[in-house]
Specification:
Blueprint (H helix, E strand, L loop, with lengths): L4 E6 L6 H14 L6 E6 L2 H11 L5 E4 L16 H6 L4 E4 L2 H6 L4 H13 L3 E6 L3 H5 L3 H12 L11 E5 L13 H18 L2 H6 L2 E4 L4 H8 L6 E4 L6 H9 L5
Parallel strand pairs: 1-2, 1-8, 2-3, 3-4, 4-5, 5-6, 6-7, 7-8
This protein binds phosphoenolpyruvate.
Phosphoenolpyruvate binds next to strand 8.
């Protein structure tokens, strides 16, 4: 199966609406779209409406960094999935390690958010990954399988068409450390194997699995050249249009 590549830029808490416009204008002017690669930008909530309007007529897709699992009501500060769709989003990040660690999101919350994302017609970009302690103790597989099992509970075969998984070793996020291409490939292959067991071979062959953790123009080609790595979730290096273009250009035409 020829899976498409997905290059996603998670801007975290960076860029105002005006800065978002500046980025998109520069990116769209320079980036040459390719049929085998999708580009996704994930700005903060306050930039989504502006970004959605600017991206109309391009192939670049838009995602949110988080959402709430209820549709509406007395949930001060929260954003419902359908509100994101109304801004032009087709994706939402779910279970990013910063949300898990800094905002106490456990797997039960991640699972509710993931199912709400799919039910609203969005694609969930589910992040999983181990801590440095788990990595050193050889507990990568245990941690990842525990997260996948809990986060995807109740998610059907059909739903899996609306799930992208990102393997993000927590020790590699924002640190400048990356998993080696071989390490990332091995863990992503393990994730694909888990999907085959939990669902079936067809679902495993179709699901896009990305690597995230200090992806930069200099290491992107080696990571994206691995057979099971279907793209990158990029934080810091997605804030500059030039470096984000270089990473997208390193993706393969499979
Ligand atoms: C991320 O935010 O998901 C991420 C991988 O960040 P960075 O590329 O900065 O490590």
């Amino acid at each position: 199966m020829n899976r498409k590549m997905l290059i996603a830029g998670n801007w975290k808490m960076h860029k105002t609406p005006d800065e978002t416009e500046e980025f998109i204008t520069a990116f769209v002017a320079r980036y040459q779209e390719r049929p085998g690669t999708d580009v996704l930008i994930i700005p903060p909530f306050t930039s989504l409406d502006r970004a959605g309007r600017l991206l109309v007529g391009t192939e670049i897709t838009l995602g949110a960094q988080d959402l709430y699992y209820e549709e509406e009501g007395a949930y001060t500060g929260e954003i419902a999935p359908h509100m994101l769709r109304a801004c032009g989003c087709t994706y939402a990040l779910v279970g990013h390690s910063e949300r898990r660690a800094l905002f106490n999101e456990d797997d039960a919350v991640v699972n509710r958010k993931l199912r709400a994302t799919i039910n609203a017609g969005l694609t969930a970009l589910l992040c999983v990954g181990e801590t440095l302690t788990e990595h050193r103790a050889g507990k990568v597989e245990k941690r990842i399988i525990a997260e996948l099992t809990r986060d995807l509970a109740g998610v059907t075969h059909d739903d899996m068409a609306h799930v992208v998984i990102a393997y993000e070793p927590i020790w590699a996020i924002g640190t400048g450390e990356t998993a080696t291409p071989e390490e990332a490939q091995a863990t992503i292959k393990l994730i694909r194997g888990w999907v085959a067991t939990a669902y079936n071979d067809q679902t495993a062959a179709a699901v896009q699995i990305l690597y995230g953790g200090s992806v930069k123009p200099g290491n992107a080609a080696a990571l994206l050249g691995q057979p099971d790595i279907d793209g990158a979730l990029v934080g810091g290096a997605s804030l500059d249009p030039e470096s984000f273009i270089q990473i997208a250009d390193a993706s393969l035409d499979r």
